[in-house]
Amino acid sequence: MKTREMKIMNQGLEDEMEVWGYRPCLWKRILVGVGSVCSGGLLLLLLYWLPEKNDMLCKQDEFKQWFRAKVYVMSGPGERPFDSLDLQSTTQVANGDLGVSTTREEHHGKLRQPVQIHYFTHHSTKYYWNDVMQNFEFYKGLEDVKMSCVSIHSDHSSGLPKTLQDYRRLFFGENEIAVRVPSLFKLLIKEVLNPFYIFQLFSVILWSAEDYYYYATAIVFMSVISIATSLYTIKKQYVMLHDMVAAHSVVRVSVCRENIEEAMSTDLVPGDVIIIPANGMIMPCDAVLTHGTCIVNESMLTGESVPVTKTSLPTSGEEAARSFNMEEHKRHILFCGTHVIQTRFYAGELVEAVVVRTGFSTEKGQLVRSILHPKPTDFKLYRDAYLFLLCLVGVAGIGFIYTVILSVMNKVPAKTIIIESLDIITITVPPALPAAMTAGIVYAQRRLRRVGIFCISPQRINMCGQLNLVCFDKTGTLTEDGLDLWGVQTAEGGRFLPPEADPAKESLVNTVFVACMATCHSLTKIEGELSGDPLDLKMFSATGWILEEPTEEETALHNPIMPTVVRPPKHNPLTHSTVQQVDLFESTSCEIGIVRQFPFSSTLQRMSVVVRRLGDKHMQAYLKGAPEVVANLCKQHTVPHSFTETLETYTRQGFRVIALAHRQLESKLSWHKVQSLGRDLIETNMEFIGLIIMQNKIKEETAGVLLELRQANIRTLMVTGDNMLTAISVARDCGMVRADEKVIIADAAPPKDFHPASITWHYTENPDAVSERVTPQDQNYHFAVTGKAFAVITEHFPQLVQKLVLRATVFARMAPDQKTELVEVLQSIDDFSLSQALKRAHSGISLSELEASVASPFTSTTSNISCVPHLIREGRAALITSFCVFKFMALYSIIQYLSVTLLYSILSNLGDFQFLFIDIAIILIIAFTMSLNPAWKELVRQRPPSSLISGRLLCSVLTQIVTCLVFQVLAFLLVRQQSWYETWTPQSDACNVSRSSLSHSPNVTSPHDQKNIKNYENTTLFYVSSFQYLAVAIVFSKGKPFRQPSYKNCKNCLILMQRYVWKEIMVQFAGHILSISVFLIIALFPLLCFHSDRVCSP
């Protein structure tokens, strides 16, 4: 890579970066050193805030953030970790931080020189230079080889030799997710060098130079408390994360090399083969199962506590020939950090898994990376806040020039000019602004916690205040988690039999249909209790059958695997009423063993099992899944002619329908042969045997919440993997689609037989009738789209996608990746309030009993969607609080700026204790208490503003500024027209009595006011501005419709009343000084401010 050459890494991916290369330059380093000495270290501070450009790479990510990383060099026998090497001798040499290794290889009698490899580390990921690509790349793991599933079995069955393992460790490092807890000293330096605290330090030095020692000491004290609190919080978070990651992250594992040997999990590299013990383990890496079956608890990654069955990677068939992919084959992958509860294995064979990813490349590692290096919350409010601060800096610049000119005209000493000119800058930029704006979010987070909503990303709370669209899943979200079995309808001879309510009745208990219900599931026993998917549990319990799993002792005693066995209750007599039943149940025994299981795939929308009835020569294959999918896999003569009509009848009523099928396998298939077959060979030429009809009841809270969201003009969508007509029925029942509104189904077909892709539209009420043209003014319709149609439209009709999703309400049969794609499309639409900032920080809510779920920023322990209005209300309250606090802090700075500017005209300023009283006793306390207003009890159609740079908000702020300026100038001029007014001299003291009254006491001496603080103008403006701070706080404390009224904020009301009483007492003691303006301040000013703000603000 050449100097100053730019490369784009991870192009098209979420973490795309621009990389610039730099080399050290001696004369530039000398110049920087000289500049740092001459600037007193200021240049070094600027370089710390900006990326340094020597002997390193500079990287800019999608958020325009700059990072720097030093490039290291190591030597090795190859350039890439998966190169095929015939290593004869390898010697590793430690070389400082570079981790250099040198390798000598005898190749055809010649000594092979080691290859120089350049790399750098960014956010716990190593990037290596590729000479062929002429760019940096990173290695995820074994999937980088692009091998098929069969190749993983054939090439990695015996593990890695020691030399190749050492070589790969050069690139992947130790298999460890290392969370380094920084020392307090490093955290302190990083915190202190924050621009905010540097500005505080500059201000404290300046105030000390002006002899404001008390005020400077108070600010230093508060800064120390703030830094200490921040250090404690950051250190605690690091320690908690370290302890969470470190638990079970380093364990001893059994590794297949030349022999099976014990090794530390930190030594694992992609390609190693590990043995999964029978009693389970915490996975130290991502590994794909090649032999055996595992029951895994993945709650750490998904938040779902339902155990998942993982099966071995296919070794034959179409699926085995495909390239291995982490997402496509995740049902075969044991993810790092998940708990393997139990395994299924041979007596002579072990449960084996091939290591795919290690360290920070694992799923758990990527999660930890996202916590250690979170993406910035690019919200419009924060961008506008920075722009507003720049405007304040511009105002400060005007004051700076004004002060310099005025001081020069009055022949003020140069030192005083410099100090006072810089002081006007410290006044204009409020130092407590960041902390004050954060207070509203903290209070909202506390209120959310009280109602069972937990947040791992507090900044997202403000974003929730701008939501105008919510996507819901169906099952478990809008409807109950558990399904009730409504009935079953068996099929025989190409026709449906009458539906039956109870599959456990004697006439059905020993049929193929019930056998399929009892075996085609992924249930397992954990501590004696059945556990698994709620649908499987409900379906199995309806049969009345019993599931028995072999113990470890039983498994060890038999050469073949001891299968999971299901059998009907012992008291149920055998019945043989049909020819089909007689063919299936030739033996007097009813026990069925589950030989092979193909877990449910959301992409395939089905699952299947291979079983053998005890004593039978033939194995049976059972299949269940989406009716449309199952019907396509069955022999057409076995599918009833009324299949489509019957399915529509049930789905229109909101039932969830599952189809069952079976097939008798060839007798020559052995147990070993079945274990190596792909599911595509099993799930074909099936015989259709019937339907299971499940009733999914809508939760009581669903309809009310959706009505509340609709009344608040918040659009709601349903995105589900269920049947289209079922989803539409549920949408109507819960009020997402009203009774008088039409639903138009958009169906799309891909190109086929030289026919282009096409879209058809039809109403749900009359599928044969093509819908007429709908005008934009007609709002009485909704679109419904299936996942298949969505994929076709996205690929072949991209110009229609945004128009379609703007009016679509139901998305059915959506795969997980399609749900993600849909959200991205919605977030890219201009009318959609979740802008690019929300696209990178999605406000998702997980309904879970856990207090924190890594799957989403918010987790609700309430198992219904009533948490959604709560979250939006608190988001709106927090957002409007941020606006209120920002406007208050900006007005506080401007009011103080106006007072100081007017006093500068008479070469005066506020005193030490006056600044202290204003900032501590008034501003700081009010800024934190005015954020305590709770959220308004209802969701209104109006949404809070999202931008500070808007006409109405700027008008509100500017009107307040003009009002404050008028009253301060009026008070400043009126006091000088009073008969008792006297111009300040070093011998006068407006706060006491004239020096002439003390002339008769020659022995009495008083200190002179050399700084011109004790004068009438100073005292007048101090009182006036103090009342203005209180009045502005009241004016900007917005209540309805986003927050509760201010009078319900008891703490803030008490603080304001107390401050008003204090000021009244101070005015009374001030005597006649303010008698001319008390009425204006107390009566007219708040009234004028209140009405002007109501006119100008939304």
Automatic annotation (TrEMBL):
The chemistry this enzyme catalyses reads: putrescine(out) + ATP + H2O = putrescine(in) + ADP + phosphate + H(+)
Is Phosphoprotein among this UniProt entry's keywords? yes
- Which SUPFAM superfamilies does the record match to this protein? Calcium ATPase, transduction domain A, Calcium ATPase, transmembrane domain M, HAD-like, Metal cation-transporting ATPase, ATP-binding domain N
Listed transmembrane segments: 30-50, 213-234, 385-405, 425-444, 883-907, 913-932, 953-975, 1020-1037, 1065-1088
Q: Does the keyword Transmembrane helix apply?
A: yes
Keyword terms of this UniProt record: ATP-binding, Endosome, Magnesium, Membrane, Metal-binding, Nucleotide-binding, Phosphoprotein, Translocase, Transmembrane, Transmembrane helix
InterPro entries annotated for this entry? Answer: ATPase_P-typ_cation-transptr_N (IPR004014), ATPase_P-typ_cyto_dom_N (IPR023299), ATPase_P-typ_P_site (IPR018303), ATPase_P-typ_TM_dom_sf (IPR023298), ATPase_P-typ_transduc_dom_A_sf (IPR008250), ATPase_P-type_domA (IPR059000), HAD-like_sf (IPR036412), HAD_sf (IPR023214)
What Gene Ontology cellular component terms go with this record?
early endosome membrane; late endosome membrane; recycling endosome membrane
Localization recorded for this chain is: Early endosome membrane; Late endosome membrane; Recycling endosome membrane
What GO MF annotations does this protein's record show? ABC-type putrescine transporter activity; ATP binding; ATP hydrolysis activity; ATPase-coupled monoatomic cation transmembrane transporter activity; metal ion binding; P-type ion transporter activity
Q: Which residues form the signal peptide?
A: none
The Gene Ontology biological process terms listed for this entry are: intracellular calcium ion homeostasis
Q: Which Pfam families match?
A: Cation_ATPase, Cation_ATPase_N, E1-E2_ATPase, P5-ATPase
Q: What topology in the membrane does the UniProt record assign?
A: Multi-pass membrane protein
Domain named Cation-transporting P-type ATPase N-terminal: residues: 139-212
Supply the EC number(s). Answer: 7.6.2.16
Function per UniProt:
ATP-driven pump involved in endocytosis-dependent polyamine transport. Uses ATP as an energy source to transfer polyamine precursor putrescine from the endosomal compartment to the cytosol.
> PANTHER family from the entry?
CATION-TRANSPORTING ATPASE-RELATED, POLYAMINE-TRANSPORTING ATPASE 13A3
Similarity remark:
Belongs to the cation transport ATPase (P-type) (TC 3.A.3) family. Type V subfamily.
Q: Any idea what this protein is called?
A: Polyamine-transporting ATPase 13A3
List the taxonomic lineage: Eukaryota, Metazoa, Chordata, Craniata, Vertebrata
